[in-house]
Amino acid sequence: MSAENNFCQRIQKCPYPGRGLVMGVLEDGKTLAQLYWIMGRSSNSRNRIFSAKGAMLETEAADPALLEDPSLVIYEAMLEWGDSYLVSNGDQTRTVYQSLAAGHSFESALCSRDREPDAPNYTPRITGCIDTKNSEPFFRFAIIKANSSDPKLSDRNFFYKEKIAPGTGFLLTTYEGDGNPLPSFQGEPVATPLMGHHETILTHYWDALDTDNKVSLALKTIDLASGVSSISIKNKNIKKN
C-alpha cells in the first residue's frame, strides 16, 4: 500500500489510532523528522497539552486541577542524548535516555519495560530513535505489546530502517482503530508521507486526526548536517494556571 493510502486508512479514516509516531526524511533530503501525537477518549487523557523546553517535548495537564491520574498521561515524549533523538508514547523515553547515557542500548532499555498496565486494552508502548552518528541516519522502531496468549507477558518487536526516501516517514500507532478492548497495532511500521514545509506537514496530520479525539501533535525537525533540532506544536487545549 502506498504512503498516501496508509495515511488515509490509518490516520484520516481511522477514528481512533491512539497515540502515533512517525520518523523519516523531509523532501530536501537534509532534514530528519519525528512526528508524535496524542489522542484521548477519557477526560483525563483529553486534559493535556504538549510543551517544549529546548529539545525536550513533554505532556502537561491543561488544567492541573482536573488531573486525575498522571501515571500514564504525563511524561517526556521527546529527548536527545548525543547523536540520538528519542520519541515515545510514555515514560520509556526516559528509560532509553538513561540507558544510552550509561553506555547501553536502545534495545536493552526496552527489554526492561512492559506494555502499559491498563487492562483490558494493555496499550502498546511505541518508541523511536534516530541515530545520526554515522554518515547515514539509522532509524530504530520498537513496539511492546501484550502477549496474545497471556497479556501478563509482553512481546517486544524491533524494526530498523535506513536510507529512507526523501518525503517519506514510517508510522507506528498504538491501536488499529476503535473498539472495546482497543485493538493493538499489528505488523511493522508503514510508510506515510512527509511532504512539504514542516508547517505544512504539521497541519496535514493535525487536520487528518479525528476532531473529537485528537489532543496534541508535535513535529521535531533535525538538520542532518548540524544536528540542531526544532519543535513545532499544535494543541487543542489552552494551558490554565
Quick summary:
41% of the residues are buried. This protein has a single domain (3-235), classed as 4-Layer Sandwich (Glutamine Phosphoribosylpyrophosphate, subunit 1, domain 1).
How is the topology of this model organized?
Blueprint: H1 3-12, E1 20-25, E2 31-39, H2 43-46, E3 48-53, E4 56-61, E5 76-81, E6 84-88, H3 92-101, H4 106-110, E7 125-131, E8 138-146, E9 154-162, E10 168-173, E11 190-193, H5 198-208, E12 214-223, E13 229-235
Antiparallel strand pairs: 1-2, 1-10, 2-12, 3-4, 4-5, 5-6, 6-7, 7-8, 8-9, 10-11, 12-13
Which features does this protein show?
241 residues; alpha+beta; Glutamine Phosphoribosylpyrophosphate, subunit 1, domain 1; seven-stranded antiparallel β-sheet; six-stranded antiparallel β-sheet; 17% helix; globular
CATH architecture: 4-Layer Sandwich
The percent range for helix content is 10-25%
Topology as H/E string?
Answer: HEEHEEEEHHEEEEEHEE
Mean pLDDT: 96
The CATH top-level class label: Alpha Beta
CATH superfamily: Inosine monophosphate cyclohydrolase-like
Q: Say how many strands there are.
A: 13
- The total count of helices amounts to 5
The Cα radius of gyration reads 17 Å
Largest sheet composition: 7 strands, antiparallel
Structural class: alpha+beta
CATH topology: Glutamine Phosphoribosylpyrophosphate, subunit 1, domain 1
Overall morphology: globular
In spatial order, strands of the major sheet run: 3-4-5-6-7-8-9
Low-confidence stretches: none
User: What proportion strand?
Assistant: 35-45%
Q: Which quaternary structure do these chains form? A: single chain
**Integer count of domains:** 1
Termini gap? 46 Å
